[in-house]
Amino acid sequence: MFRIKEADIQDFLWLDKTESNFFNSSNSEYERYEKIMKMYPENNYIIFLACYKNNNIGYIAGEKISSELHIYNLLILNEYRNKGYGDRLLDFYIKYNSDIKTIFVELRESNLKALNLYLDKGFVKYNNRKNYYSHPNEDAILMKLTSKI
């Protein structure tokens, strides 16, 4: 019933629409996955979809930069939250990128569920960015997971 699959070019519309709806923004601000997916996998992006009963219910997107991985988004649709899908998706993503030395993520200070998820996976806070987010204004927490190689 639950599975994880790598994104492909057919998924860009769902990714763009989902991100735009989640962040309550105009589509033009978040129409970036079409460009990313047209160059995928030649670019350094790594995107996986969480699926339940053949429906997309979330995704994780990041980019490899040298020996680092930067997670840009981990999103699970509201009706599927608190069921462990985000946890399973993040576990998969970390294992998939086991050759990476450091994984970075930033999140809103108020996003306590995400903060606790990353802390449970071994991420540590290493910095804050004051007033990084807008609508509403909020600090960002910077976190990283360093491999034990």
Structure notes:
The protein is an alpha+beta fold and 149 residues long. It has five helices and seven strands; from the N terminus they run βαααβββαβαββ. It has helices at 12-22, 27-30, 33-38, 85-96, 112-120, and strands at 2-6, 45-52, 55-65, 68-76, 102-108, 124-133, 138-146. Strands 1-2-3-4-5-7-6 form a seven-stranded mixed sheet, sandwiched between helices. Helix 4 (85-96) links the parallel strand 4 (68-76) and strand 5 (102-108). The longest helix is centred in the middle third of the chain and has 12 residues, at 85-96. The protein is globular and about 35 Å long. The relative contact order is 0.13. The mean pLDDT is 90.
Structural key phrases:
about 150 residues, about 30% helix, about 40% strand
| DSSP helical segment count | 5
How many DSSP-defined strands?
7
Low-pLDDT sequence parts: none
Structural class: alpha+beta
Radius of gyration: 15 Å
Mean pLDDT: 90
Enumerate the strands of the largest sheet in spatial order, edge to edge or round the barrel. 1-2-3-4-5-7-6
Beta-strand content estimate: 35-45%
Euclidean distance between termini CA atoms? 34 Å
Helix content: 25-40%
The topology string of helices and strands comes to EHHHEEEHEHEE
User: Main sheet?
Assistant: 7 strands, mixed
**What shape does the CA trace take?**
globular
Architecture blueprint of SSEs:
Layout: E1 2-6, H1 12-22, H2 27-30, H3 33-38, E2 45-52, E3 55-65, E4 68-76, H4 85-96, E5 102-108, H5 112-120, E6 124-133, E7 138-146
Parallel strand pairs: 4-5
Antiparallel strand pairs: 1-2, 2-3, 3-4, 5-7, 6-7
